Amino acid sequence: MKRIYMDHAGTTPVRKEVVEAMLPYFTEKFGNASTVYSYGREARKAVEEAREKVAALIGADPKEVYFTSGGTEADNWALRGIAYANKEKGNHIITTAIEHHAVLHTCEDLEKKGFKVTYLPVDKYGRVRVEDVINAINDKTILISIMHANNEIGTIEPIEEIGQVLKNLDRKIYFHTDAVQTVGKIPVDVNKLNVDLLSISSHKIYGPKGVGALYIKKGTKIQSFMTGGGQEFGKRAGTENVSGIVGFGKAAELIASELEEQQKKLSYLRDKLIKGIMENISDVILNGHPVDRLPHNVNLCFKYIEGESLLLNLDLKGICASSGSACTSGSLEPSHVLLAIGLPHEIAHGSLRLTLGRDNTEEEIDYVVDAIKEIVEKLRQMSPLYNQKK
Ligand code: PLP
């Protein structure tokens, strides 16, 4: 059966060029990057070249890029590292209600340790208001963490504007952004955004899983995340994942060279998919910002049906997508993001996220629109709520 992959915000396939770049670092170039003999020097050189490539993708100095085990670790490090290193200055953190759980659960844990966290609301498109961020600042605020774009609904947040305001304050408040979903999709420049910390993940940009990076601006007061050896400039101990880092570097280099072209192609396919669905199916809501959204993100709610049933039926037709619901502790909770934009539970349950990638085609869009139309009609025929409405 034909398979159509439309869950690129979940993960992406590793590119052939990336696998080829990685392979030698498992076998003939297996050295530990911290050793002085030739094997080690070879590995060190590869790690530093990868650091340069990742730094170039976000406009950073390579010395400001610290490799981690992924986006989750980068988020954990940014929040805990800043909180604990600056606790004598204050204990207040500002974030939003729609962050990834890597940020939200870390904030909840910090609250248990005595920190105070403000979770800002968002508007109906999922955007935080710059004035709400400013108004939430008090004299104990040490850190603000706001994602660059939301992973579920694709809304891009006003990071540059917030960064600009924070830059002009008369005291330092660190600014972190989780850019896991934007790096490689839209231009990301740490200086333009005015951020001190920025999280990235390799597997969202056609690199391997289990590797990522945290950008830490020079001069930032932050605790080490892992203690042990002196790797990553003494701030993140542990023998480097050399092959993973090499793959991440290659993926960063490739995506940087085609960013503009991909952004154009993906937005075209995204708009075709949205139009196809909205014109052919009734009672559909587009979630997220209509314009300020990621070029590859489509998130919709289909009234009167469950997102899970839609997903399972799509899977039977070979289509891989995602729904906003997460099945936790036996209860099917709708996504915290969809609830935060004001959707009622019953509508939030009917959500579907389709995220496009470099290999998707126009024909696939047509196939997916037809498939969704057929499945939604079938499920609605079986829905008591839909039949009541009629
Ligand atoms: N932050 C955001 C916005 C994400 O979308 C994800 C992954 O889905 C992460 C963090 C976690 O990244 P990783 O899977 O590399 O741990």
UniProtKB/TrEMBL annotation:
Instruction: Give the enzyme's EC designation.
Output: 2.8.1.7
Binding of pyridoxal 5'-phosphate occurs at G71, T72, N151, Q181, S201, S202, H203, T239
Q: Specify which residues bind [2Fe-2S] cluster according to the UniProt entry for this protein.
A: C327
Q: Which domain of life is it from?
A: Bacteria
Query: Could you tell me the keywords of this UniProt record?
Result: 2Fe-2S, Cytoplasm, Iron, Iron-sulfur, Metal-binding, Pyridoxal phosphate, Transferase
Of the GO CC terms on this record, one is:
L-cysteine desulfurase complex
Positions modified as N6-(pyridoxal phosphate)lysine? Answer: K204
The coenzyme or cofactor needed here is: pyridoxal 5'-phosphate
Extract one GO molecular function annotation from the record. Answer: pyridoxal phosphate binding
| Principal location listed in the UniProt entry | cytoplasm
Subcellular locations according to the entry: Cytoplasm
InterPro entries reported in the protein's UniProt record: Aminotrans_V_dom, Aminotrans_V_PyrdxlP_BS, Cys_deSase_IscS, Cys_deSase_NifS_bac/arc, Cysteine_dSase, PyrdxlP-dep_Trfase, PyrdxlP-dep_Trfase_major, PyrdxlP-dep_Trfase_small
A GO term (biological process) for this protein?
A: [2Fe-2S] cluster assembly
* Gene3D superfamilies in alphabetical order: 1.10.260.50, Aspartate Aminotransferase, domain 1 (3.90.1150.10), Type I PLP-dependent aspartate aminotransferase-like (Major domain) (3.40.640.10)
Per UniProt, residues of the Aminotransferase class V domain are 4-368
A Pfam family found in this protein is Aminotran_5
Q: Which family does it belong to?
A: Belongs to the class-V pyridoxal-phosphate-dependent aminotransferase family. NifS/IscS subfamily.
Q: What exactly does this protein do?
A: Master enzyme that delivers sulfur to a number of partners involved in Fe-S cluster assembly, tRNA modification or cofactor biosynthesis. Catalyzes the removal of elemental sulfur atoms from cysteine to produce alanine. Functions as a sulfur delivery protein for Fe-S cluster synthesis onto IscU, an Fe-S scaffold assembly protein, as well as other S acceptor proteins.
Q: How does it assemble?
A: Homodimer. Forms a heterotetramer with IscU, interacts with other sulfur acceptors.
The name of this protein is Cysteine desulfurase IscS
Lineage of the native species? Answer: Bacteria, Bacillati, Bacillota, Clostridia, Thermosediminibacterales
